[in-house]
Fold this protein.
Amino acid sequence: MKPINVGLLGFGTVGTGTAKVMIENGALIESRVGVPLVLKKIADLDTTTDRGVAIGPGVLTADAGGILNDPEIDIVIELIGGYEPARTFVLQAISNKKNVVTANKALLARHGNEIFAAAAKEGVEIAFEASVGGGIPLIHSIKEGLVANHVKTLLGILNGTANYILTRMADEGTSFEKALKEAQEKGYAEADPTFDVEGIDTAHKLAILIALSFGMPIELDAVHTEGISEITPFDMEFSRRFGYRIKLLAIAKDTADGVEARVHPTMIPAASMLANVKGSFNALRINGDMVGDILLYGRGAGMMPTGSAIVSDLVDVARNILHDAVGRVPAIGCQPEAVCDRRVKSVDELQTQYYFRFTAVDSPGVLSKIAGVLGAHGISVESVQQKGRVAKGNVPIVMITHEAREADVRKALTEIDNLPIVHGKTMLIRIEGEGD
Ligand code: HSE
């Protein structure tokens, strides 16, 4: 039987990992597919750097068009990243009837609906296992392993850089800046680390998972997104005292009156499994109506884990090509005509517990003034702590509330932040009490 020919666009870290997996495990992969997967061409602007991988002479080129228009190439892997020229290349590959594998979560989160529709129209596959959770098979698990379930809840740690930073801050008292620098040196971070620390990369990934889990279009702008750059070592210490850890969590819930979709720093019980996902590791806890809870854990970034996910997609697509079954599993998991719009709830509708850190003058009566405003908005306090005393100046006062409505919380904090005894913006961290 004819080999399956693959063209790779982008020969950076993940591209190199993909080539290594294809070469090092080539015999194993052939034994599983039935024919060899051949890396016929690789296009990158840098054609001189030695990536330490044994590709044949003439494989590396600067000409992406040579791949997109090569009639012998069956599958194009897009690892350029970003929106353009990645979008143009992917759409061009699809219109040339080529199957596409991509790791590009930003592209799919923004243009996925268009790309999925184009692939369905042309009768080709678009596979994207590596776009969320690096080497952890999250996409296959949702689309295939959990196909018999209504997914009810997703709780995920989906950005290794942010998790590395929060872990270093919690365990070593490291500053945010130093931990970010370390994560960048280890190669976890995006080209623009703002995407990692401001929750944008996590939101891209959550938007994709929500579409697959709830059978709806990708709606990136509906994901409420906050990052971790304002978390201080002080918040870390207090979360520990209250029995929590702070994680940048991706949260999605399918509720009777709409879908919750949010990414923000979250306090979760210290004993929960997600709270103990450390360093650059990722994890996703999924609740399905039939299966109950499952937890998938592993490396969410890096050359070889992401290469592993890319090659798993290649194998899937190759098997479908060989069995004349392209399109067997729809890109979004359910049949295109079954995809339906869902209302995404505003964060104002959220009901949860909150952690507040107020910065206020240290004098008698301050606490009762703050508690008075909270009480007037129907917000009940579960516990309060103040660390130390100062004769002059401000002290941090920390509170945990009972369950409250976010719209009320926001009104109360606006009033509190305008009190003359309060200096600086109050820090708010939402608490996700559901244990695992
Ligand atoms: N920057 C991402 C992370 C890499 O830190 O998890 C993979 O998406």
